[in-house]
Structures are given as structure tokens and as C-alpha cells.
Amino acid sequence: MAALRFIVSASLYVASKMSSFRYDSRNPANTAGGIHKGTLYIPSLSKEAAIPGLFRNKWPYLRQIFSHKAYPVLEDTTIILTGSASALSTVISDGTIDYIFTDSPFGANIFYADCSLLWEAWLQDFTDVKQEAVWNKSLKPEQGGKTLTDYSVIMNEAFAEMYRVLKPGRWASIVFSNSDDRVWQVIRDGAREAGTSQTL
Questions:
Q1: With CB atoms 3.0 to 4.6 Å apart as the test, which of 75, 110, 134, 178 could cross-link to 183 if both were Cys?
Q2: Domain boundaries, the chain
Q3: How far apart are CA 111 and CA 135, in angstroms?
């Protein structure tokens, strides 16, 4: 069942209207195109995908990954965690991480739980929106919305955890983009208060 959920989730993007069509004269079968990475984008001309074909292409790889022989290798080399970055204490000890690369939530730009609703509905594993680091201007706090202060508190907790798990003298890279100076200031303040000395 896990393999089936994985293969469906992996195929959803390619099978959606987000998959663009791009003509390539060197490829008359028109297999060119794909997802515009890094953004939520619906192209003017989408490329249709045959679902059975997607499954057939991915299944040989999944069979290897989900085989009994592959599991011990994955367990020995990789740890995958889902949850809030502000609560790592139960799984990661102080001063054990060499380097952190994080692409932090962009304030009010993207509502991640909303964007993931189809995948979460299929997997029956929904995001706890109370822990989502966003600034929701369209809803009042009493309606479930979040203020800039709420966003700041969540990000400060995450930065504090990042600082705690890093080894002394090691670094974290933070990818962030926002045109609102107030959101930028929240990120700067959170990194500073966590004990980092980096200039953002």
C-alpha cells in the first residue's frame, strides 16, 4: 500500500494541468515539456499524460526501493522526519548537525497546506495548520488566520531549534524571498535572537 501511495503521489504533478507542452522538432513524439519548477504555474498549453504509462515507468524503480533488501540500506543512511521544525528535541540532540539548508516559508506568499490538499487527502495525513508558518491576511485570528506576530513566533522557535542542533561554529543557509520589509525583518530578528551572527 505504501508503494501505491508513493507512485500515485509522484505521478500527480506530471498528470496535472501544471505539466506544460513544449514542441521539440527533434522529438516528434512530443515527449518534451514538464513541470515549471519552483512555482505554482498553470501553462496556457498543458501536456496530457497517460496515467498507465506513468505507472509503468516508475514501477521498476519503486520495486527496488520497497524491496526488503533496500530497506536496511535506507534506514542506515537516511532519516526522514515530518513535523514542525520548532520541535526537533525529541529526535535530534544538541550540537549534532554539521550544516542546515532551509527554504523557509515566505510569509503571506504561499499557503502550503492549501497547496497540498489533494496530496494530503489521498494520503489521509493533513497538515496541522496551527503549526503552519504563514501570515494569513484574508482571515481574522478568531477565524483561524495568523498575524505577522504569529508568523514571527513560529519562525523564532524554528531558528532557535536550528541553532540548538548545530555543532559549534557550523553554519545554516537560509533561502528566503519576500518583497515586504516587515517579513524580512522578522527573519532577520529570528536569526539574530537564535544566536546566529550571520548577516542576512
A1: 178
A2: 2-77, 97-193
A3: 9
